């Protein structure tokens, strides 16, 4: 959109004033101060965007009011569009009529068209946009210090995304929110606070984690303390031992002293206990013997003299004899009876005996002879021949068997048997004949005997036939024997009686009283006498024994006395009592010895020390005191060490159960979590803001970055390489060739203006495709020196190739430099 | 032979984003890593394993508090008393000297590779099976060089490798945890390589086995899922190893999502939130509300209020907790169609890590944590989503006016 003509009806000092720009991209309006340069700038701006009649503020002076005498206010601007269309933009204002912005009429190629036909082509920017972007004047330059990215962006994005202004607001809102959460150099925003807190807590944790080394230190010091304590205890033990030794010695001292005392009491005593025992035994023996002797003597006096009576003794000895007699007597009496009985029996048994009792021996012999004579004629027929007969039979049988055998059996046996049979038969026949001869002699004799027998009966009154003379004689002899026995018995009885009488007589003599002559009486007397005799004898025996005993005892006593004397002499004492005394002494010495032995055994090892102790008691005392002091000191030290160990243990236990590290860590972790969350919040805001920015950049075809690149290039050009970088954050800053970044406010006025130009021109360069409006440079180089002016001239020429530039200046030199025909403000000049 | 491999116990480490929890609940989770470790030891005893490998970052700090030290010492003593061999290395968090440990001396305990020197220890199981363990411990918080070449060649014994390290990737500045290349680690051909450092459980290689067991207890919403240890069973004849993950963490972190497609009443919102949280054990939830632009400012404020979370949590089983709510938009920016492309492009440019770092530099330079966060893609994403939510919410107004 190229401005080709400015037609002012009424504006400021101008009325009906026209500038023809002749389709040139670079125009210079030359005029002195107050010539109306700024008025023309304001005119162009206000025709496009409305009069400045309200209470609106503006970035530069443009308060041009309608003059009362001339009407209407305003005029027209004539443009040629890129597509060749011709626009006339007319704005008029009559006081009190219509909008204070004025009434706008747009004509395209001579036809009135809706204003949007024109304004759409400049993207419907507003007056502020145009001012900020396309107008360069002293007022604006002064504001370079305050230029912020926002200002630039807002305008540049205006051309990109839909709702870019709202997006920018949103972006700023996020940025602001981010800024509230964190500031690079702040301390109050939450994230900054958390940063500080984290650092503090880290330090706290670091300190707390000292527990680790503290524990290690404690552990090693505990070990050390325990060793010290152990050493100290050992020392204490040793000291206590020494002290105990001294105390022990002190305790033993009385014993030791007693030992010494006892040793002094010790002496040699010769004493043989066996000998003493012997002496004692002998003394007892002596005493016993003396007593015995005395007793014996006393007994002896008790014995009376006993008369010797040999007759009595003899008599007494007769007792067995007497008893013999008695027995014999009884026997004789008995015998007499027996004899009588036997005689009667004999008589009873053999009645014939009565006939011959009175016969004497000779008569009997006669009888016997008589009888014998009688009995010798009497035959005796007693023989028997039966034997012979048997033999005859046998003799007959044997030959028969012999014949049989000869015929049937062995002929030898049969022959023999036959022979023996014949011999036997011969012998038996001879015997039979002898027998018969003898019997005939006997019968002759028997008749003679008969005669003799009758004679015999008459003489002796005995029947010889029946008489058994031998028996009778035998009986007779027996009877005679009885008679003789009877006689002898009678004699013996008498004899016995006589002897008894004699004995009784003698007894009477001895006993001095009459003794009956019967056996009982004599025996009684004899017993009495024997008793007397026995008693007498016993007494005598006893006396003899006593006497003998006395003699023995006396002898023994003598011996004992001698022995005792010898023993006492050997012991060197006179009496047994002395000997006893000696024994007591000996016993005392033994006791002493035992005590010494016991004490010595007890004290044994301590003896040298005890001797020493006794010798150096003060020294020992001093040592003891020193020991006690040292023990007290070591105990104190030990106590202290124990305390330390306990303290260390407590500390260790405390550390072991301490949650301080965890707490510190957890607190830090909590803070870190907060920091993380707050940071996320901050970053989310920051990045939401950046996100929008970047999206806008992209949407605006990255105009902003490009603009910045251009601006840097322009600045470099304008400052002749002294400044090569521009930073646009919240505030502007530039970087000098030496790398130093300088804030705008510290730049020289000239440099500030150069920066301003650079930025603004760069911007216009970026938007020119979208908004191609003329750049209005109003007296902007007053602060430029010649060199700078030269540089800007180059730049302007460069820019003017694509963008229309209108320069309003009072500097003749600049006009000359640009080598252009300037437009002037004198009415009726060639401008019109 | 049986063994257990775990890492990154981070005893005594703090929990992020839970400061609002009632103290009882908080101390419960505070105890969780210790409980998890105790459970691992219980498991080792019950399984009568021969070896326990602890692959670094047992403590959260190089100066762990004495309580944690003593706790670990107790747990290790339980193992060594049972004659279970324990081999431990230090990681980038607990970079220390072996002498700094309070674990009592035992022939069954070995701190491997003290002072960042690769070290090999040869052991034998109770049944007489020989094995070697090679590895190193951190002394400084960073190890910039690759230490894999320092590992010895595999011997005839079953060979374990142990390393607290991160695979080489991305910017040089990030490769500060003994960076390694998987291929070189594979070419060592150890029977089992026990790694630590990455809190996400993962098996980098099956043959040979190269394993990150993950940490033993999630501590924040970025450490999701069940945590625990690996139980390995080695066939002593074939030397083939079977590994099985054994969960031990008492608390599980989980993400839940709720998608809104239209505006919603607060009551319905509450019902929807509850319906989206279905714990099967003690679970700490981060809820992502997709379509957050359907919530107005007050509603958004409400669902991000910890009291609101507590109210929800009271109705959850297993004492589970809602501890985090995040918003995302479920649609493109509400912006004029013409400008959509500009915004998309702008986002691509701005949220590029380098641009992000450049634009956020004032903030990043302020603090180490900020620097770390600036490199955390998750954080970037979070910021981006938050920015989008904010933007969308505001753009809605603009467009409404425009429409």
Describe the structure.
The complex is a heterodimer of chains A (832) and B (403). With 832 residues, chain A is an alpha/beta fold. Chain A contains 25 helices and 14 strands. In chain A, strands 2-1-4-5-6-7 form a six-stranded antiparallel beta sheet. In chain A, strands 8-12-13-3-14 form a five-stranded parallel beta sheet, sandwiched between helices. In chain A, strand 6 (103-108) and strand 7 form a beta hairpin. In chain A, helix 8 (210-265) packs antiparallel against helix 18 (576-603) and helix 8 (210-265) runs antiparallel to helix 20 (617-656). The longest helix of chain A is centred in the first third of the chain and has 56 residues, at 210-265. Chain A is elongated and about 270 Å long. Mean pLDDT of chain A is 82; it is low at 828-832. Chain B is α/β, with parallel strands linked by helices and 403 residues long. Chain B is built from eleven helices and 15 strands. Chain B has helices at 23-47, 66-81, 182-188, 266-276, 297-303, 306-313, 337-350, 353-359, 361-364, 368-374, 377-402, and strands spanning 2-6, 51-55, 85-89, 109-111, 119-124, 130-135, 158-164, 192-196, 202-205, 209-212, 228-234, 241-247, 252-259, 283-290, 321-328. The model of chain B has no long low-confidence stretch (mean pLDDT 89). The chains are: A alpha/beta (832), B alpha/beta (403). At the A-B interface, helix 6, helix 7, helix 8, helix 20 and helix 21 of A face helix 2, helix 7, helix 10 and helix 11 of B.
List keywords for this structure.
heterodimer; A: about 850 residues; alpha/beta; five-stranded parallel β-sheet; elongated; disordered C terminus; B: about 400 residues; six-stranded mixed β-sheet; 11 helices
Describe the biggest sheet of chain A? 6 strands, antiparallel
What distance separates the N and C termini of chain A?
21 Å
Which term fits the overall shape of chain A?
elongated
- Give the low-confidence spans of chain B: none
Mean pLDDT of chain A: 82
- The order of strands across the largest sheet of chain A is 2-1-4-5-6-7
Unreliable segments of 5+ consecutive residues of chain A: 828-832
The strand order across the widest sheet of chain B is 4-3-2-1-11-12
Oligomer: heterodimer
């Amino acid at each position: 959109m190229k401005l080709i003509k400015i037609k002012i009806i009424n504006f400021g000092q101008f009325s009906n004033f026209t500038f023809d720009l002749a389709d040139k991209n670079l125009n210079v309006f030359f005029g002195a101060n107050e010539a109306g340069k700024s008025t023309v700038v304001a005119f162009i701006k206000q025709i496009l965007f409305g009069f400045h009649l309200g209470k609106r503020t503006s970035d530069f002076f443009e308060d041009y009011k309608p003059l009362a005498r001339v009407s209407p206010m305003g005029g027209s601007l004539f443009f040629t569009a890129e597509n060749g269309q011709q626009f006339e933009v007319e704005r008029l204002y009559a006081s009190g009529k219509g909008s204070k912005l004025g009434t706008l009429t747009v004509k395209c190629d001579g036809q009135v068209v809706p204003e949007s036909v024109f304004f759409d082509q400049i993207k419907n920017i507003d007056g502020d946009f145009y001012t900020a972007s396309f107008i360069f004047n002293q007022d604006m330059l002064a504001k370079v210090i305050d230029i912020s990215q926002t200002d630039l962006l807002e305008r540049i994005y205006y051309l990109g995304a839909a709702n870019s202004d709202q997006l920018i607001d949103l972006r700023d809102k996020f940025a602001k929110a981010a800024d509230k959460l964190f500031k690079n150099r702040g301390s109050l925003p939450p994230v900054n606070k958390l940063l500080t807190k984290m650092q503090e807590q880290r330090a706290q944790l670091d300190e707390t984690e000292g527990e680790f080394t503290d524990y290690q230190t404690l552990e090693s010091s505990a070990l050390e303390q325990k060793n010290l304590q152990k050493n100290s205890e050992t020392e204490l033990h040793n000291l206590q031992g020494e002290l105990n030794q001294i105390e022990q010695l002190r305790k033993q001292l009385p014993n030791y002293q007693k030992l010494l005392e006892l040793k002094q009491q010790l002496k040699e005593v010769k004493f043989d206990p066996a000998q003493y025992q012997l002496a004692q035994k002998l003394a007892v023996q002596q005493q016993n013997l003396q007593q015995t002797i005395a007793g014996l003597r006393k007994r002896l006096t008790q014995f009376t003299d006993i008369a010797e009576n040999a007759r009595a003794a003899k008599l007494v000895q007769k007792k067995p004899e007497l008893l013999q007699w008695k027995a014999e007597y009884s026997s004789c009496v008995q015998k007499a009876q027996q004899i009588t009985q036997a005689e009667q029996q004999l008589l009873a048994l053999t009645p014939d005996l009565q006939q011959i009792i009175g016969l004497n021996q000779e008569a009997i012999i006669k009888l016997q002879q008589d009888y014998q004579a009688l009995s010798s004629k009497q035959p005796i027929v007693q023989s028997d021949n039966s034997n012979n007969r048997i033999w005859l039979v046998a003799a007959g049988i044997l030959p028969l068997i012999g014949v049989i055998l000869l015929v049937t059996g062995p002929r030898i046996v049969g022959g023999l048997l036959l022979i023996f049979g014949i011999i036997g038969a011969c012998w038996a026949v001879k015997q039979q004949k002898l027998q018969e001869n003898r019997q005939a002699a006997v019968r002759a004799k028997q008749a003679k005997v008969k005669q003799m027998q009758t004679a015999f009966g008459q003489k002796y009154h005995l029947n010889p036939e029946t008489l058994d003379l031998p028996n009778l004689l035998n009986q007779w002899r027996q009877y005679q024997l009885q008679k003789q026995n009877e006689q002898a018995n009678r004699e013996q009885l008498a004899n016995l009686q006589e002897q008894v009488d004699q004995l009784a007589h003698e007894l009477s003599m001895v006993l001095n009283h009459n003794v009956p002559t019967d056996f009982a009486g004599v025996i009684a007397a004899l017993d009495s006498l024997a008793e007397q005799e026995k008693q007498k004898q016993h007494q005598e025996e006893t006396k003899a024994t006593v006497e003998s005993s006395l003699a023995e005892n006396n002898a023994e006593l003598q011996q004992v006395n001698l022995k005792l004397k010898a023993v006492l002499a050997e012991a060197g004492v006179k009496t047994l009592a002395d000997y006893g005394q000696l024994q007591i002494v000996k016993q005392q010495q033994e006791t002493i010895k035992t005590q010494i032995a016991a004490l010595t055994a007890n004290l044994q090892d301590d003896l040298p020390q005890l001797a020493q102790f006794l010798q150096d008691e003060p020294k020992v005392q001093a040592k003891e005191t020193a020991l006690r002091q040292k023990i007290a000191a070591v105990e104190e030290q030990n106590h202290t060490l124990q305390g330390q160990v306990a303290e260390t243990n407590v500390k260790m236990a405390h550390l072991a159960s301490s949650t301080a590290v965890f707490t510190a860590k957890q607190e830090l972790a909590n803070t870190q979590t907060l920091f993380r969350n707050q940071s996320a919040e901050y970053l989310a805001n920051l990045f939401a803001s950046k996100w929008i920015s970047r999206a806008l950049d992209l949407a605006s075809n990255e105009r902003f970055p490009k603009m910045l690149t251009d601006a840097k290039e322009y600045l470099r050009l304008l400052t002749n390489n002294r400044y090569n970088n521009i930073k646009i954050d919240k505030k502007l800053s530039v970087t000098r060739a030496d790398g130093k970044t300088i804030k705008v406010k510290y730049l020289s006025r000239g440099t500030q203006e150069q920066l301003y130009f650079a930025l603004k021109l760069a911007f216009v360069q970026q938007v020119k495709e979208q908004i191609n409006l003329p750049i209005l440079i109003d007296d902007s180089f007053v602060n430029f020196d010649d060199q700078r002016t030269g540089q800007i001239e180059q730049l302007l020429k460069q820019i003017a190739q694509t963008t229309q530039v209108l320069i309003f200046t009072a500097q003749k030199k600049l006009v000359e430099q640009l080598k252009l025909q300037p437009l002037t403000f004198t009415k009726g000049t060639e401008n019109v | 032979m049986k063994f257990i491999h775990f890492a990154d116990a981070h005893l005594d480490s703090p929990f992020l984003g839970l400061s609002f929890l009632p103290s009882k609940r908080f101390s419960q989770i505070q105890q969780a890593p210790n409980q998890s470790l105790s459970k691992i030891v219980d498991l080792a005893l019950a399984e009568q394993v021969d070896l326990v490998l602890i692959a670094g970052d047992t403590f959260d700090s190089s100066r762990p508090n004495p309580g944690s030290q003593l706790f670990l010492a107790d747990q290790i003593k339980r193992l060594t008393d049972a004659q279970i061999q324990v081999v431990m290395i230090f990681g980038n968090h607990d970079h220390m000297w072996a002498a700094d440990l309070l674990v009592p001396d035992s022939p069954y305990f070995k701190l491997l590779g003290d002072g960042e020197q690769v070290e090999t220890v040869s052991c034998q199981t109770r049944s007489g099976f020989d094995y070697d363990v090679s590895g190193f411990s951190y002394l400084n918080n960073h190890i910039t060089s690759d230490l894999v070449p320092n590992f010895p060649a595999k011997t005839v014994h079953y060979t374990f490798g142990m390393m607290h390290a991160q695979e080489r990737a991305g910017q040089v500045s990030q490769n500060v945890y003994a960076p390694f290349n998987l291929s070189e680690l594979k070419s060592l051909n150890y029977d089992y390589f026990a790694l630590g450092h990455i809190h996400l459980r993962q098996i980098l290689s099956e043959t040979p086995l190269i394993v990150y067991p993950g940490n033993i207890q999630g501590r924040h919403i970025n450490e999701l899922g069940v945590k625990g240890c690996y139980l390995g069973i080695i066939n002593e004849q074939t030397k083939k190893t079977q590994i099985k993950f054994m969960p031990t963490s008492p608390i599980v972190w989980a993400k839940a999502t709720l998608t809104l497609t239209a505006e919603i009443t607060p009551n319905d919102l509450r019902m929807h939130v509850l319906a989206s949280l279905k714990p099967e054990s003690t679970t700490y939830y981060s809820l992502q509300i997709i379509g957050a632009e359907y919530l107005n400012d007050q509603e958004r404020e409400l669902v991000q209020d910890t009291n609101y979370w507590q109210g929800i949590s009271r109705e959850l089983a297993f004492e589970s907790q809602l501890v985090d709510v995040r918003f995302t938009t479920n649609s493109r920016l509400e912006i004029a169609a013409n400008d959509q492309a500009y915004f998309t492009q702008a986002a691509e440019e701005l949220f590029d890590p380098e641009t992000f770092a450049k634009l956020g530099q004032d903030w990043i330079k302020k603090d180490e944590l900020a620097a770390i966060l600036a490199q955390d893609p998750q954080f970037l994403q979070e910021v981006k989503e938050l920015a989008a939510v904010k933007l969308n919410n505001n753009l809605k107004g603009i467009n409404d006016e425009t429409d």
